[in-house]
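Exercise 7. Given the encoded structure of a 324-residue chain, write a plausible sequence.
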């Protein structure tokens, strides 16, 4: 049974987030006319907002829940890197970043009018890191690992979480006896073999098995098919309104229903799930208990607009009613 006291056990854990760092940029304004140049709306810009995205949002969720988070990733030699660095500092997140002048700092720019997104512009490079950049990332990971309680592989398939770097992180987790949680985007889940738990949503699971997955029976079959390649890693399938289902060795285990909240925006909800789940495991909670906490945290963030995080007080308040 969950208790609000469990939330206090999440504080102070040291977590490393290796993955694709991003800036979520929001250009907000109003639309009153159509462009004379093309049949598109003209946004009269009012405000510009920057939020931590991708692996940086996972770290932000960790920090907001009281963890000591460190990100390991790649940035460009550009203004985006400076914007990201400032946002990380304000969020009290330590950064072990490697500069790659050949790629821009990943930025997702959303044009928002009247609370509705009308367009998105992505600035990124998806090629896998290699050579000196990959070696520097490995060194940065080793520096960050001192005293770590858990590792997150926050993989948005932008090139940072290569097979070699994933193996480096997972092997380090085994040597240190700490959990490794994976937020996957690559089709080949064998990249994440021997991790503690891999957390695909339904779309990610479908890509991994190369066919649609709609029913519970189809999810069960996908989990059984993937199990040999996972080499002992548990599979936690996040199913949106249908909650979360855990698989071990291809066998279905615990299931947690979705928190009953009105859904406004699922942006960043997966990062919240991964952060809360990881802290639960870092605190020594059973995977089944940690996933219950993660489900409650996700229910909070999807009730808001835009990338968001959860505070310990909010999570504790969500836990209290669930005890009945």
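Solution.
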């Amino acid at each position: 049974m969950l208790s609000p006291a469990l939330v206090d056990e999440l504080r102070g854990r040291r977590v490393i987030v290796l993955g694709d760092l991003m800036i979520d940029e929001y250009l907000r304004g109003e639309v009153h006319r159509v462009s004379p140049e093309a049949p598109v709306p003209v946004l009269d810009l009012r405000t510009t907002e920057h939020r931590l995205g991708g692996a940086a949002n996972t770290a932000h969720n960790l920090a907001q829940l009281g963890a000591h988070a460190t990100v390991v990733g790649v940035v460009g030699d550009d203004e985006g890197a400076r914007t990201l660095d400032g946002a990380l500092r304000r969020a009290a997140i330590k950064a072990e970043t490697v500069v790659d002048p050949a790629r821009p700092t990943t930025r997702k720019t959303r044009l928002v009018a009247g609370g509705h997104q009308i367009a998105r512009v992505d600035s990124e490079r998806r090629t896998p890191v290699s050579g000196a950049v990959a070696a520097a990332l490995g060194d940065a990971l080793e520096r960050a690992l001192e005293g770590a309680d858990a590792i997150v592989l926050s993989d948005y398939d932008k090139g940072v979480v290569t097979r070699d770097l994933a193996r480096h992180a997972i092997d380090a987790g085994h040597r240190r006896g700490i959990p490794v949680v994976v937020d996957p985007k690559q089709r080949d889940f064998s990249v994440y073999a021997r991790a503690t738990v891999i957390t695909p949503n339904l779309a990610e699971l479908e890509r991994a098995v190369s066919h649609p997955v709609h029913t519970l029976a189809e999810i069960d079959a996908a989990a059984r098919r993937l199990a040999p390649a996972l080499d002992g890693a548990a599979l936690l399938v996040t199913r949106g309104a249908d909650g979360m289902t855990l698989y071990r060795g291809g066998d279905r285990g615990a299931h947690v229903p979705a928190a009953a909240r009105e859904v406004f925006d699922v942006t960043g909800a997966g990062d919240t799930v991964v952060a809360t789940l990881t802290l639960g495991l870092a605190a020594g909670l059973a995977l089944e208990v940690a996933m219950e906490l993660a489900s409650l945290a996700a229910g909070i963030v999807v009730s808001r607009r835009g990338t968001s995080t959860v505070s310990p007080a909010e999570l504790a308040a969500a836990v209290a009613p669930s005890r009945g």
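Remark. The chain has ten helices and 13 strands. Students should compare their own answers with the one above.
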